[in-house]
Give the backbone structure.
Amino acid sequence: DAGVTQSPTHLIKTRGQQVTLRCSPKSGHDTVSWYQQALGQGPQFIFQYYEEEERQRGNFPDRFSGHQFPNYSSELNVNALLLGDSALYLCASSFFRTGISSYNSPLHFGNGTRLTVT
Amino acid sequence: SQKIEQNSEALNIQEGKTATLTCNYTNYSPAYLQWYRQDPGRGPVFLLLIRENEKEKRKERLKVTFDTTLKQSLFHITASQPADSATYLCALGPSNTGKLIFGQGTTLQVKP
């Protein structure tokens, strides 16, 4: 049973360029969330996709956009890269639960894409 | 604004002792709190979830407490081992969403 897979593992880009990161969720999961983790910091929520739509968004500019495909895989796109975008980008999948319970399934993270902007 | 604080300094303890990590939060009323472990170069791995109406949760050598009055969670690892050395992240979330707010993490070093 494959866990969350992300590609590529490392990427070096130049300021002003655009980048696309990819994520395949854990088998059986239908929700994908993206996080940015700067060195020495905790992950920061970028956005979440469910049923191919962006459901929630964190405090990130419109340069950050995403997509979810019918097979639940997802892409994160960042335009006009800045030096400050250098970070570990983490994808996390979960199973969306509805109903009376307020329980939310734990997130399963991939090992991330290390993006370096020079 | 919402704020989560974990021990910023690394925690160094001797093998066999109990490690206690702290997570404090302000300006937030989470429905649940989660703890994750992160090894260098890897993504976080889920350890435990505790809901707002639970005071304590255990899993093998791990124990988590959640005090919504103090706005604090304590994470304990009993009989610690060098393999427990890692960064531990606490994360708070509302109900039925994947939007977790993470602390900056505490690095634990267990010495043999």
Notes: Chain B touches chain A through 27 residues (CB under 8 Å). The longest strand of chain B covers residues 19-26. The radius of gyration of chain B is 13 Å.
